[in-house]
Structures are given as C-alpha cells and as structure tokens.
Amino acid sequence: MSETSGWKALPIGLEMGPLELVLDNNTVKQRVELVQWENHEPVDKLGVTPPGITIANHALMKFTAWPDLRASIWAKSEHEFLKPMKVGSRIYIRGKIIDKYVKRNRNYVVAEYETVNEDGEVLMRSRETAVYVE
Amino acid sequence: MEKITKSLKVGEKIPSLTKTAYMPIDPNARNVIHTDEYARDFGMRGALIGGSTLLSYVLEMLYNYFGQDWFYHGKINVSLVGGGAINGDIVTAHGVVKAIEKEVDSTRLKLDVYLENQMQGKIVVGEASCSIT
Predict the structure, then answer these.
(1) Which end of chain A has fewer CB atoms < 10 Å from its terminal CB, N or C?
(2) Is B96 exposed, middle or buried (0-12, 13-18, 19+ CB in 10 A)?
(3) Which of A54, A70, A81, A103 to mutate to test the interface with B (most CBs of B within 10 A)?
(4) Mean confidence (pLDDT) of chain B
(5) Cβ contact, residue pair B74, A81, below 8 Å
(6) Residue A72: its chain B contacts at CB < 8 A?
(7) B12 secondary structure, DSSP code
(8) How many angstroms separate the CA of residue A79 from the nearest CA in chain B?
(9) Which of B51, B60, B76 has its CB closest to that of A39?
(10) Do A79 and B56 touch (CB under 8 A)?
(11) What pTM does this model have?
(12) How confident is the model over B63-81, as a mean pLDDT?
C-alpha cells in the first residue's frame, strides 16, 4: 500500500457516519438471536434492546469508510451505557479515529463512537482499538 | 434477576453464563477474519467469532446481575486475548467483585470480568462496573 492509501493514509480525526439505524422489532430480534441473548426482560417487558446489540455496527462503519480495509481484528473495547435504546426508535452512530499506532509489526486504529437518539441524547459511548489489515 | 445485597464482598463471584459460541460463516464476509480461509492463514483455528458477539455474552451476564441499572450506569473495558473463539467453542462469562466504592447517592461495584473457553483459556479479559441505585 502507498502513503496515499490504506492504514498510512488514515488521518487522525477522520469521521465516520453518521449511521442511522431504526431499531424495529425485526432488527432487534435478528441481533438478539445472533448473540443468543436469552434474557427476555429487556425486549418483552421493558421495550428496550439488550445492551450492546448495536456495537457490531461500529465495524461496519469502518468498512464503509475505509475501502482498503480487508480485516479488522478487535483488540480492545470500552463502552459506557448511559440510557437504554427503545425498540422502534431511531438512533444515530457517529465515529472518529482518535489514534493509530504500530505494535509488534501490526497496525492499530483507535476509534471513538457516540450513539444518540432522535432527541440528541447520548445513549452509549465507545472506544475501540482494532488491528487494521489491508 | 439476582438481588444485589449489602453483604456483597470483594472476591465474590457473580453468576456465570455459558454459551456455545456461534456466528454464521459467510465465505464472502467483508471482514475476512470471519472467513475460515483467511483466519487460518492468519494463524487462527478457523473463522473468528465477532468481538461484538463475544462481548454480548459478557454483557448478558452483567445485565442478569445488575438489571436495569446497567442501562444507565454500566461501564465495561475489555481486551481480546488468546486467539478468540470459533463456532462450537463452549464459552463461559465470569465476573468477580474487585471493589465496592461509595458514591454520593449510590454504590459502584467494580468487577474483573472474563470469558473463557472449554480449555479454560481466557479469550476476553477486562473490568466492568455499575452504580447500584
């Protein structure tokens, strides 16, 4: 890869998204089944999604924004949960590269994500570090 | 839902949660680490299960313990170690109380959390905390 593409060209501060998601019943059900979430209380009694079921979308945002990315291998992740996500609601995820570094010959990218609802209330904050393979 | 009691002590374990790790394998996956061929070339046993799926196993254990407080006050910080998980691995999420800290109107419980496979190898390690109102 040249200096103008791939990991070397990724600028700190590069923004991703916003990704708009509608947390309709089908979307929530599919994700709940995929991760084998067995506790029915959040969806059936409280009308909210299990915590963290939108986190998989952060990787999708990277693949959309970075065409040279072939593999993203999760290394670390931090998440702060601030408000539940209501089933049927619309949310928006915004991401930003905040750091990148090389360790043991592997290229790492650190990105932050903020998930908000339609009223702009922050529901979740995340910081994720992944190996970037091009 | 587990009732969190005032008698909780540092070193105490919260109820664990076991799953058979699974993720549909798509040979055309955009993230090639989720394909058998690439993952094996990368030195893994097979297509890696997504980190967000493994994290969900830990989060369900935490939600089962903290209940709705987790939605408002939950924090988790974890790393993937030991080669991750592939389909069919039996993985168990664990949490051990490491600190109990008084806050203004609540108590924050800090836990060491980890996910281990059927060989007792840790694949996710880190810490989580939640304020109990």
Answers:
(1) N
(2) middle
(3) A81
(4) 93
(5) yes
(6) 31, 33
(7) P
(8) 5
(9) B60
(10) no
(11) 0.95
(12) 97
Under 8 Å CB-to-CB from B57, ≥6 apart: which residues?
A35, A36, B17, B19, B21, B91, B93, B115
Sequence-separated (6 or more) residues with CB below 8 Å from residue B39: B32, B33, B45, B46, B47, B48, B86
Half-sphere exposure of A110 (CA within 13 A, CB side): 9
Structure tokens at A16: 């991703």
Q: Which two tokens stand for residue B22?
A: 């699974």
Structure tokens of B106? 């609540």
Q: CB-based contacts of A120: which residues, under 8 Å, 6+ apart?
A: none
Q: Does ipTM surpass 0.90 in this model?
A: yes
Q: Residue A1, class by beta-carbon neighbours within 10 Å (0-12 exposed, 13-18 middle, 19+ buried)?
A: exposed
- Is the Cβ–Cβ distance between A94 and A16 less than 8 Å? yes
Minimal CA separation from A26 to chain B, in Å: 18
* Of B52, B24, B48, B23, nearest in space to B37 by CA: B48
Residue B56: list chain A partners with CB under 8 A: 35, 37, 50, 52-53, 55
A78/B contact by beta carbon, under 8 A: yes
Calculate what percentage of chain A has a pLDDT beyond 70.
Answer: 97
Closest CA–CA distance from residue A112 to any residue of chain B (Å):
13
